[in-house]
Design brief:
176 residues, alpha+beta, 4 helices, 7 strands
């Protein structure tokens, strides 16, 4: 397995990974881990064009940066930071992560999170990383807590996926 910062050249493989990963949500013993019901309708070319703009945008505009985990030529995991949506929030970003079933439980989530944290603190010089995690996702919550993220609140019934009410936990990590 190889972890690296994602580049524009990775966009097609990244899109394919996200499609596979989202298909796993709520299937074969997995709990629901994302609230996006229409992901299979996404158009690959259009999505890749939108991501390219965000992946290359300056940090003073809406931006995204991603890290990927490859098993050979196949992307099996990613982490992402998003920011720049409001000038008053340029000191913060939002974190997300996704690992396909075969890559979970092996320390890759920790490695992806640490890569984001390092970049956010040194390259982007951000002060905070925010994240949201479904309350029933105990493995992810345990990982985030072990990396220093703190619980700051919960939104009850924030999402309804396939008729299931899902509470959402808000966590933060202070970088400075």
């Amino acid at each position: 397995m190889k972890l690296s910062a994602a580049t524009v050249a990775d966009l097609g493989d990244y899109f394919d990974h996200v499609q596979r990963h989202f298909r796993e949500s709520g299937q074969e013993g997995d709990f629901i881990f994302h609230p996006v019901p229409d992901f299979e309708k996404w158009e690959k070319e259009k999505m890749c064009q939108e991501l390219e703009k965000k992946w290359t945008a300056p940090l003073t505009q809406p931006w995204e940066r991603a890290w990927i985990l490859r098993d050979g030529n196949l992307i099996v995991g990613h982490s992402m930071l998003r920011g720049g949506f409001l000038p008053a929030r340029l000191h913060r970003c939002l974190y997300s992560i996704g690992l396909e079933r075969g890559a979970r439980g092996q320390g890759f989530g920790r490695a992806l999170t640490l890569a984001c944290r390092q970049w956010a603190a040194t390259e982007a010089r951000l002060d905070w990383i925010d994240l949201r995690v479904f309350s029933h996702n105990k493995p992810a919550r345990k990982l985030y807590e072990s990396l220093g993220f703190e619980y700051v609140g919960e939104t009850k019934d924030d999402f309804r996926v396939n008729g299931q009410s899902i509470d959402d936990i808000h966590m933060v990590l202070r970088l400075k």
